[in-house]
Design goal:
Length: about 425
């Protein structure tokens, strides 16, 4: 069972961008940000009272675009501890951020700050370093001939001001799609693939990282000067009849990185395999998991690194329908097991874009969008391609049966919050 967190509308979340963060202070709440058609909202769920707050409207876009999903972060120390900071931009658009006026409240906000004034930003993705600095990663468009890069800017005052952008990864005329890990002691990893317009496919997943915010290394541990380019080593080098891309990266401990890469064969780009990639002591090992067609966009569980949640299409392809499943291993990736987390939605377009709540535990851990109406559209940037959706929370560790992790394979109970 799931709990609805927002009204039926054209709701969108963005994977790997922090859409929901739990903060425990005076209250124990999960704050979440989402877009409905052209409007950016933030709200909260209270874990003690089980109440859903009144959504706060932060911004209205000039157009409808599924790329407009916001992200957020909450500092845990300093002047702005407990204040929700939200970041939002349309596709290749101006990038904004807004900070709540008061800790643990979404009723009042400071004026919006323009992080990037040019029409170039997409996918804002914040991380907070050990000294409280916010590193805001996002994709930055250059031109039709020089493509798009992954960059970041730094704020040392809770988002009031921002430094110049620093380019992390560049792919020349093509587009970089990056996934940023969580932060542990200022160690952050960036995985990225190139979308090759000439071949109409994603390819060649690469990896770079820093452990001290200054010095960067490629996946082999060799020091590099930013920006990283396609000259750095790959995790996966795609063959000419395949399309590969990463969907998540989890830093378990220093030097221990887990990455999900989805492999699709041409023609048709049908996803048939997922690579669970582990880097320990500087060495990569790849575990191949045969996943059903349509299974992509997986997210690794921060509490159980050998477990990830992923949408799975209904085998009856006459309907647009999917469910969330959990795929896990209790023998360090030698064998993998699947359990249903939600039922098929019964003819609607189904569940997609799952994301884990940051710092989540207890009564809410996974968010997703549940598509309740499918509308065809020739413009993939409009929300019409997804129709209407409901934002839902779909798992609760206090109510979910995890006994299958110890060898007993059972259907996971649906949560009742």
């Amino acid at each position: 069972m799931s709990i609805q967190l927002a009204p039926d509308d054209s709701i969108e979340l963005r994977q790997n961008c922090y859409s929901a963060v739990r903060y425990v202070g005076t209250y124990d709440r999960t704050y979440y940000a989402y877009v409905t058609s052209d409007k950016v909202y933030v709200n909260y769920y209270d874990h003690d009272t089980h109440d859903i707050g009144t959504p706060s409207l932060l911004y209205t876009y000039a157009s409808v675009d599924i790329h407009g999903a916001p992200s957020l972060c909450i500092p845990t120390s300093g002047t702005h501890a407990g204040k929700v900071i939200v970041f939002y931009a349309l596709h290749t658009s101006v990038l904004y951020c807004r900070r709540a006026t008061t800790a643990e409240s979404i009723s009042a906000w400071v004026s919006g700050v323009t992080v990037e004034s040019s029409l170039v930003a997409t996918y804002p993705n914040p991380r907070i370093m050990s000294n409280g600095d916010i590193w805001l990663f996002y994709r930055r468009y250059n031109s039709s001939t020089t493509g798009s890069d992954e960059v970041y800017r730094v704020s040392s005052d809770g988002g009031s001001t921002w430094g110049d952008y620093i380019t992390v990864a560049s792919a020349g005329p093509d587009v970089v799609y990056a996934t940023v890990s969580n932060i542990i002691d200022d160690e952050v990893h960036v995985c990225w693939y190139t979308y090759d317009y000439s071949e109409a496919r994603s390819r060649d997943v690469r990896h770079i990282y820093t452990t001290n915010k200054t010095d960067w290394y490629d996946t082999a541990g060799t020091g590099i000067t930013l920006p990283a380019t396609e000259s750095v080593p790959t995790i996966i080098t795609s063959h000419e009849n395949a399309s590969d891309y990463q969907s998540d990266a989890l830093l378990v401990s220093s030097g221990d990185l887990r990455v999900l890469i989805h492999h699709r064969h041409l023609p048709g780009f049908v996803p048939i395999e997922t690579y669970y990639c582990i880097k320990e002591s500087g060495v990569w090992s790849l575990k191949t998991i045969d996943t059903p067609a349509g299974s992509e966009g997986g997210q690794i569980d921060p509490e159980y690194p050998f477990m990830f949640v992923i949408p799975e299409d209904d085998p009856d392809y006459s309907v647009y329908d999917s469910r969330l499943v959990v795929i896990s291993s209790d023998d360090s990736g030698t064998t993998w097991n699947k359990a249903g987390l939600t039922d098929y939605s019964g003819g609607s377009w189904g569940i997609h874009n799952p994301c884990y709540v940051r710092n989540g535990s207890g009564s809410m851990r996974i968010f997703a969008t549940h598509m309740i109406d499918y509308t065809s559209s020739t413009d993939w940037n409009t929300a019409g391609i997804y129709g209407y959706a409901t934002l839902v929370a779909v798992a609760d560790t206090d109510h979910v049966d995890l006994s299958w992790m110890d060898g007993t394979r059972t259907l996971i109970e649906r949560l009742v919050v």
